[in-house]
Design goal:
Helix content: 10-25%
Largest sheet: 7 strands, mixed
Strand content: 25-35%
Radius of gyration: 23 Å
CATH architecture of the largest domain: Alpha-Beta Complex
Number of helices: 11
CATH class of the largest domain: Alpha Beta
CATH topology of the largest domain: Spore Coat Polysaccharide Biosynthesis Protein SpsA, Chain A
Structural class: alpha/beta
CATH superfamily of the largest domain: Spore Coat Polysaccharide Biosynthesis Protein SpsA, Chain A
Distance between the termini: 42 Å
Shape: globular
Length: 452
């Protein structure tokens, strides 16, 4: 039986949820008037070009992940679980499937209680241009913020997979009396070139910030690690509006938070603070946190493969911090035939609804909805997106098969890198990406593009 302990802490009302056999420290949340009076702006307009052909027909936040989810489901779930239920999603690049997913999967928020998700495509309200940068995406929706009248605005990237209690970040922002707060995480120095790199003093005040530096500076005392911005920012609403208007009038600006807004705030002496992800993450029962940038084919494949472990790093079975999504009503997965050399099996694998494994072997793989694998076929260490169909006598290894691929009988993928590179995309680490176009099935894909 769960118990609830309530403590008043200034602006925040801290609610500790204590479950059976579980310490309240590991499952605590901060739910307050702050979260209720916060508007979350999710920036979900990017293509994600490092995912190559996987984003030819969809924006990166709409890419499937984890067997039944889309990448954006994780940040949306963080919002809802944190008590933030006024949300805007700024879209731009090939956004139809993303918008459709939000409409179908997130319509449970009730407008009668002030809960909603606004889908905000670039509409050129203020100028005849699309979103020019992350700051411009928010600036072009200032009318939405003014109408909603939140006390705080939470700016979020829609293309990372992680669990985080934004209430703790908001409470920290208020405690520091900050003008802006940046969530940050330690990353290997070798990977820091792709992030905004932060320097802080003993009070966690930001003293330096460089967006995607060619030669990133390590953390003091940790020569192989840098402190990186997660693209998660908290602002007081009035202050944010002032800064966006000032930036919009600056013709030399690229209208980006990392390149322009944060450096200006620091040079002008405003109070910019950083909070470590470890202070606001949602940990599993072992005390572990989870954050992944699945922005390359290799990292996308690795992130999915991690879920096949006996104890995966990402706990998708956590009922106290659930990941919400849209899921079709599908029949259970089915495994048929029990003959020598023709046995339907799946080992260390995630198999979604509607799948049929007919006399085939699936090992260490993820099968999304409605995947069909026919007899005498072997699938190993692979990610098969929805509606994939694999013929007989096929061998697939270390591959990502995009939605609706039809693999003909007898094809081999992932065993000869040079041969695969002639017809498919092969990543740096040897993961083979296959799309319907690469298989000569592009006409069907074009006709069904709007349902991707």
């Amino acid at each position: 039986m769960a118990s609830v302990i309530i403590e008043a802490q200034g602006l925040a009302l801290k609610i500790w949820v204590k479950g059976s056999g579980m310490s309240h420290e590991s499952k605590s949340r901060v739910i307050s008037l702050m979260t209720k009076n916060t508007y979350a702006m999710i920036l979900a307009g990017g293509r994600g070009s490092r995912l190559h052909q996987l984003t030819n027909w969809r924006a990166k936040p709409a890419v499937p992940f984890g067997g039944k989810f889309r990448i954006i489901d994780f940040v949306l779930s963080n919002c809802v679980n944190s008590g933030i239920r006024r949300i805007g999603v700024a879209t731009q690049y090939k956004s139809h499937s993303l918008i459709q997913h939000i409409q179908r999967g997130w319509s449970f928020l009730n407008g009668k209680f002030g809960e909603f998700i606004d889908v905000l495509p670039a509409q050129q309200w203020l100028q005849e241009s699309w979103y020019a940068g992350t700051a411009d995406a928010v600036f072009q929706n200032l009318d939405i913020l003014r109408e909603t009248k939140p006390d705080y605005v939470l700016i979020l990237a829609g293309d990372h997979v992680y669990k985080m209690d934004y209430g703790k970040l908001l409470a920290y922002h208020a405690e520091k009396n900050a003008d802006m707060t940046v969530a940050c995480i330690e990353v290997p120095l070798s990977e820091a070139k792709g992030f905004g790199v932060i320097g802080v003093n003993d009070e966690s005040r930001v003293v330096s910030f460089t967006e995607k530096p060619s030669n990133p500076s390590p953390l003091p005392g940790k020569s192989d690690v840098a402190l990186a911005s997660m693209g998660i920012y908290v602002f007081n609403t009035k202050f944010l509006c002032e800064q966006l208007i000032r930036d919009a009038d600056d013709h030399d600006s690229t209208h980006d938070f990392g390149h322009d807004i944060i450096p200006h705030l620091m040079s002008a002496g405003y109070r910019v603070f950083a909070q470590s992800f470890g202070d606001s993450c949602v940990r599993d029962e072992g005390g572990n946190s989870y954050w992944r940038d699945v922005g390359t084919i290799d990292s996308y494949w690795e992130g999915n493969m991690e879920l096949t472990k006996v104890v995966p790093d990402l706990n998708m079975y956590d009922n106290e911090w659930p990941i919400w999504t849209y899921q079709e009503q599908l029949p259970p997965a089915k495994f048929v035939f029990d003959e020598d050399e023709r046995r339907g099996t799946a080992v260390d694998a995630l198999v979604s609804g509607g799948c049929i494994i007919s006399g085939a072997s699936v090992v260490r793989s993820l099968l999304y909805s409605n995947v069909k694998v026919h007899s005498y076929t072997t699938v190993e260490d692979s990610v098969l997106l929805p509606n994939v169909e694999i013929g007989r006598n096929v061998k697939i290894r270390r591959a990502v098969l995009d939605k609706s691929c039809i693999i003909p009988d007898g094809m081999t993928i992932g065993y000869d890198r040079e041969e695969d590179a002639k017809r498919f995309h092969v990543s740096v680490n040897g993961v083979t990406l296959v799309t319907p176009e690469m298989l000569g099935q592009d006409m069907g894909r074009v006709r069904s593009a709007k349902t991707k």
